[in-house]
Amino acid sequence: MLSTDHITLDTLTLSWLPSQMEAAILRLDKLEPEISGNKWFKLKYNLEAAKELGKKHILTFGGAYSNHIAATAAACQLAGLACTGVIRGERPPVYGHTLQHAMDKGMQLEFISREDYRDCRQQYNASPDTYVIPEGGHNAAGARGCEEILSLFPTHHFTHMLCATGTGTTLAGLINSAAPHQTILGIPVLKGAAYLEEEVRTLLHPGRPRQWQLLHDFHGGGYAKVKPELIDFINTFYQETSIPTDIIYTGKLIKAFRELIHHGYFPDNSKILLIHTGGLQGNLSLPSGVLTL
User: Fold this and answer.
1) Backbone dihedral angles phi then psi of residue 173, each to the nearest 5 degrees
2) Could you give the 3-state DSSP secondary structure of residue 48?
3) ∠ CA(35), CA(161), CA(45), 5° rounding?
4) Measured between alpha carbons, how far is 52 from 182 in angstroms, rounded to an integer?
5) Per DSSP, what are the bridge partners of residue 184?
6) Non-local CB neighbours of 112 within 8 Å, separated by 6+ positions
7) From CA 153, how far away is CA 271, in angstroms rounded?
């Protein structure tokens, strides 16, 4: 069990934030360097279930730069469980930071073609002592852990909450635990991710209507696509707030927040909570000196 004591709720003072609005950011990135942000919440009850079932081995899935792969490797080492990561794509001649980190934490890596990867995520013949965690922790146990995020601080006064969305697991947890008057907005970081609507719905508690929406126009070209304007925005945001963000998720989230404000999306007197989901290790794929964090 990791302590959440280092997580903070930081008020944002931004040059582009209207005076009639309030904004804050929940700093899940402060949780733990290696099991960063929302990753721990998605893994928590999956690892508990594995131990309760007497499983000795974790199997999961992800890409070569996956925050989930890196976090699962570190969490399994902490929990004393063996683990294997099924990696999308061919084995690279030289491992990047994410894969090397996962190996250093004891994760066995299996590489599979992108075509076969799509199928094997749905059906994988795991051994009896293996507990399978879907890509990104996308299951009921993952969403259950993310339901605890809003209990870390008093959040009832916020009118809107924004979260970057990959698999929809964290978003579903936020929707399940939000108050009825709160609107939860997911910012997909993948292009053409209309399927996320159903992915989120599969993890929602029945009979508890909530206000939520996916806003699909802020992916910046697609997953892991990094344009110069995103780099400039992340650097400027850091200079203004001293808050580091990543190029895959939270950087795009906050940039989307600024664009929504610019287009008058939020009513006056809105109180907005941004969820910093961590994943700063994703920045290590950039050349040195590109970010000023």
Assistant:
1) -60, -40
2) helix
3) 35
4) 35
5) 161, 212
6) 86, 87, 88, 89, 120
7) 15
Own/partner contacts of 114-119, CB < 8 Å, gap of 24 or more, are 114/88, 114/89, 117/61, 117/86, 117/88, 117/89
3-class DSSP assignment, residue 90: coil
Please report, in tens digits, the pLDDT of each residue of the chain (293 residues total).
788 999 999 999 999 999 999 999 999 999 988 898 999 999 999 999 999 999 999 999 999 999 999 999 999 999 999 999 999 999 999 999 999 999 999 999 999 998 888 777 666 767 899 999 999 999 999 999 999 999 999 999 999 999 999 999 999 999 999 999 999 999 999 999 999 999 999 999 998 778 999 999 999 998 888 999 999 999 999 999 999 999 999 999 999 999 999 999 999 999 999 999 999 988 988 888 889 88
Pull the structure tokens for residue 11: 């008020």
DSSP result, the chain: ----TT--EEEP--TTS-TT-EEEEEEGGGS-SSS-THHHHHHHHHHHHHHHTT--EEEEEE-TT-HHHHHHHHHHHHHT-EEEEEEEBPPPSS--HHHHHHHHTT-EEEEE-HHHHHHHTT-----TTEEE--GGG-SHHHHHHHTTGGGSS--TT-SEEEEEESSSHHHHHHHHHS-TT-EEEEEE-STT-TTHHHHHHTTSPTT---EEEE--S-STTSTT---HHHHHHHHHHHHHH-----TTTHHHHHHHHHHHHHTT-SPTT-EEEEEE---GGGGGGSPTTS---
| Amino acid found at 50 | A
Structure tokens at 205: 């508690």
For tokens 């893994």, name the residue: 43
Q: Which of 99, 142, 31 is nearest to 282 (CA)?
A: 99
